[in-house]
Amino acid sequence: MAEVDLEESGEILKIENVGLRYGDVVALDDINLNIDAREFVALLGPSGCGKTSLLRSIAGFNSPQKGRIVLKGKDVVDLQPRQRNIGIVFQDYALFPHMTVRKNVGFGLECRRMSAGEIEARSMAALDKVRLAELADRRPKELSGGQQQRVALARAIAFEPSLLLLDEPLGALDKQLRSRMQFELKELQRSLGITAIFVTHDQDEAVAMADRIVVMRDGRVQQVATPSALFARPATAWVAEFIDAGNLLSGEVCADGNTWSVQLPGGFTPGAMAPTAVDRKRAKLLLPAHQLEVVATTEASPYRLASIRPNGMALDLLIACGELRLRAQLPVSRRDEFEVGASVRLAATPGGGLWLPDD
Amino acid sequence: MVNRIISVIAWLSIVFLIAPLLVIVGSSFTETDFVTFPPRGFTLRWYAEAMVAGGFVDAFFDSLMIAAATMTGVALIGIPSALGLRMGSTRTQTILRSMIMAPLTLPAIVSGIALLQVYYASGLDAPFVGIVVGHILITVPFFIRTVTAGLESVPNSILEAAESLGASRARVLFRVLLPSIIPSIGAGLAFVFILSFDEVTMSIFFSNPEIMPLPIRIYNYIEFSVEPVIAAISTILILSAFVLVALLQRVFGIDRAFAK
Amino acid sequence: MTMATQQHPTSHARSSKGMRNPPRGRMSTLLSPIATFYALFLLLPYFYIFWLSLTRYSSTQLYVPDLGLHNYIRILTDSYYLGLLAQTIGLGLFVMSVTLLLGYPLAMRIVAAGKTAKPILLILVMTPLLVNVVVRTYAWLVLLGDNGVINKALSGIGLIDAPLPISGNFFSVAIGLVHLSLPLMVLSLVSVMEKLDKGLFEAGESLGAGPMKMLVGVHIPLCMQGIGAGSLLVFCTVISAFVTPQLLGGNRFSTISTIIYQKFTFSMNWPVGAALVFVLLSLNFAVILLHSFMFREK
Predict the structure, then answer these.
(1) Nearest by Cα to A214 from A340, A35, A359, A356
(2) Cβ count near C193 (within 10 Å)
(3) Where are the strands (E) in A73-210, listed by range?
């Protein structure tokens, strides 16, 4: 099994102007995406956003009416799935029930007409990678969900594909197993040096594993960024809301020089640098929870502390004023300053807010 | 009160179902030359008689041969049909499926007569072929239904996985799809065997002294004899059925097929 | 990293639907065996019978190709055939009702039975289905009949002087058919009843409903689909049945099926027999249509 191939670099996959329609329904609308070698990319979005359609188009189970999918320099749009040399891990693992683990993993190698010795060697190597070698002669139904998933993985990498696709790979696992598998999956991808794309609706998972995240909505790409860049600068209010980047504030926007502020019920008026090319009437202010300063006060204030909850090393506060709810995050050391139901004063950390287009 | 009535009727129904069969079983042991219940005396001589006289043993083997030939024919016709049904749009599938299941609604007596006319008109002298064709006609919808149900439980992702791994269409079919449905094919064939073994109406038209399935043999015997040997043969069939159903329940848990 | 792709691009035109379609040719090859089989052994024979039904009976040749609807007209106007139709339909309705009345409580008790009783009951109900119809009908030949078990028993006790006429008539055929169809009805009902939400009955009881009201107001309406399916199955089985009416009906009681048989084997009146075949088929078809209409999804 080849380890990191230092020769491999540059663009592995190029998706150009891909469009896909099912009858009247537009599943993918002019998708453009470049994926480099050895990247681990997440397709993230709510259900119906097209992430699975895009994955299946890359795999070859969908036939886009428009555009090109260029894999290692070749346009594969007209190729059958079996000709694309792509490894796929399906959501339900899709292990062949009548075959042992060993046979399952070796299936792709059999299709490539390797000798029995080769097949055995490579299958066992793949199983070693996922640490399941001792279960090689079991059948899928005798394995746990986590084990089945690893067999599916071994099967998909055994023939050294150009690309690895994973459809909600960790969706069926329980929470504990999921965190562990996130780490293992990422490790495996790195050690193999394989380019991988996975689909998920869970942004925590995307952040944990991906080098870059592709956020999709209604068949279009909203933003492509590294996890930190995504949280620091979401492209739109929708993206910010989807990844839960913080408080999204809307209301009467006043421009003052190159600062815009929004007046909230209760009087708090946070603001930030005016953005370029954004319509003032259709803009929202993103104020991350840790950029909202909260101070307990004895004076009368329209803002009350509705709840306070520890969250690891931080404190999650919920401030209420009428219908308005604001979230703040403070160091856990400040717990004693606050009492639920008490009045508080609010301030925005300078430079903490970000104006985003609302669409 | 209402519950009492329900229980009484339920009990009556079960007794009604079982009692006649028990009467046959009982009367098979009678020492008289005619069927009577309660049996007078106790003897196994009618069972011995059944083994040598009346042509029952020959008829049993005839039934086996016919069933075997039917199972083969049904498999050859039915397995490709079930596979073919899986393709195409859902609407095509529904239409084709109703067309294939159509013989289920046709009375056996009608199909038997119709087939017989064509058989005569063809001038062929092969009653075995005629019977087997009739049996296949009756049983193939049941077989296809069973296999189709088994096919449906094979998720598409399995086939897509095979394809993505590089399998050609033939490999997907023979190495992935067919092996997954072996159990339903087996169940379907078992079903066909039972249906063929018990088939009467159509077989009436094609039977002759050379080839006569067991139920027809019994049918003819009844018309001219009241000897308890019929009760003996019937008892053997009833008990076989009972054992078979009990085994199926034990091994497969048939009662779970009716549960949620 | 190696790339082990076979380099043959397909001439796969981009489908307008967006999905990869399996080649149509594959599907018709797979379906050709059954298509041929049905064409030869189903369509051809039935078309022949239909053509026969349009010919005329002749006592010298089997039939005269004088095509017309005369046979059908005769059947639908002649009092004998109308009586036969009425008799057959009456038999169907009677057996259907009796199996429903007997089967419903049995199905209820089966569904409510405990872990040991339920399989036993199901075995008892299913065993007769694996026994061929001749043996199942033979049981009633033995029981009914002037010298049969029942008559002998009753006169033995002294309850009757002369044997009861319980053979060779509507009654004997009906009872034989009830015995034949009861497992079908019971199993149809059981499969529906098992899926009922027990919580509904607990709710009904908590609201104060007595067992009668629960049965009529809740249980039966919820089982309607099963009742419909079972009734359709039984009715069609009965009106098409041949062996049981033939064996138990004697010379005096006939159904459409037994007369059809007679026309083709003894009286050699193939044209009328063929027309009766299509009358029976239409009856089956009409009942199936009626059932789908009555039990359609609302």
Answers:
(1) A35
(2) 19
(3) 74-75, 86-89, 163-167, 195-200
C interface mutation test: which of B74, B87, B172 has the most C CBs within 10 A? Answer: B87
Closest Cβ opposite residue C134 in set B197, B215, B254: B215
Which of A86, A91, A92 is closest, CB to CB, to B164? A86
Comparing C-alpha atoms, which of A45, A82, A3, A324 is closest to residue A203?
A: A45
Residues C263/C121, Cβ–Cβ less than 8 Å? no
* Domains identified in chain A and CATH numbers: 11-236 (3.40.50.300), 246-357 (2.40.50.140)
Give the tens place of pLDDT for each residue, A31-44: 999 999 999 999 99
> Buried b vs exposed e over A52-66: b needs ≥16 C-beta within 10 Å?
bbbbbbbbbbbbbbb
Using pLDDT thresholds of 50, 70 and 90, give the confidence band for residue B60.
Answer: very high
Q: Which residues of chain A have pLDDT under 50?
A: 2-7
What is the C-alpha separation between A37 and A4, in angstroms, rounded? 11
With a threshold of 0.90, tell me whether the complex ipTM lies above it: no
Q: Is A97 on the interface with B (CB under 8 A)?
A: yes
For C7-19, the pLDDT digits (tens) are 333 334 444 445 5
- Which residues in chain C touch residue B148, judged by CB atoms under 8 angstroms apart? none
At B211, is the secondary structure helix, strand, or coil?
A: strand
Among B3, B36, B105, the residue with its CB nearest the CB of C288 is B105
| Binding partners of B (≥3 Cβ pairs within 8 A) | A, C
List of chain A residues whose C-beta atoms are within 8 Å of the C-beta of residue C4: 85, 112, 159-160
Which helix (H) or strand (E) covers residue A52, if one does?
A: helix A51-59
- Torsion region of A312: left, alpha or beta (phi above 0 gives left; psi -120 to 50 gives alpha): left
Q: What is the pLDDT of residue C10?
A: 38
What is the set of domains in chain C, with CATH numbers?
68-270 (1.10.3720.10)
Which residue is associated with the tokens 């308005």? Answer: A324
Q: Cα dihedral sign for B192, B195, B201, B205?
A: positive
Could you count the other beta carbons within 10 Å of the beta carbon of residue B183?
12
Q: C262 near B130, Cβ under 8 Å?
A: no
> Residue A28: is it exposed, middle or buried by C-beta count within 10 angstroms (0-12/13-18/19+)?
buried
What chain B holds in terms of domains, given with CATH numbers, is: 1-43+229-260 (no CATH), 57-227 (1.10.3720.10)
C289: tokens are 């249509």
- pLDDT at position C19 is 52
Residues C20, A60: C-beta atoms closer than 8 Å: yes
Any residues with CB less than 8 A from the CB of A348 and at least 6 apart, and which?
A270, A271, A272, A287, A291, A292, A293
For residue range A204-250, list pLDDT tens digits in order. Answer: 899 999 999 999 999 999 999 999 999 989 999 999 999 988 999 98
Distance of residue B104 Cα from the nearest chain C Cα, in angstroms:
11
User: What is the band of C6 on the pLDDT scale with cuts at 50, 70, 90?
Assistant: very low
How many residues are recorded in chain C?
298
Distance of residue A27 Cα from the nearest chain C Cα, in angstroms = 10
Check CB contact of B13 with chain C, cutoff 8 Å. Answer: yes
3-state secondary structure of A310: strand
Confidence of residue B259 (pLDDT cuts 50, 70, 90): low
| Residue A8: per-residue pLDDT | 56
Residue B52 in tokens = 């040598």
Beta-strand relationship, A212-217 and A40-44: parallel
Average the pLDDT over C73-78 and give the result: 89
Residue B23 and residue C102: Cβ atoms within 8 Å? no
CA nearest to A344, candidates A319, A311, A312: A319
Q: Is the pLDDT of residue B246 over 70?
A: yes
How many separate helices (H) and strands (E) can be counted in chain A? Answer: 8, 21
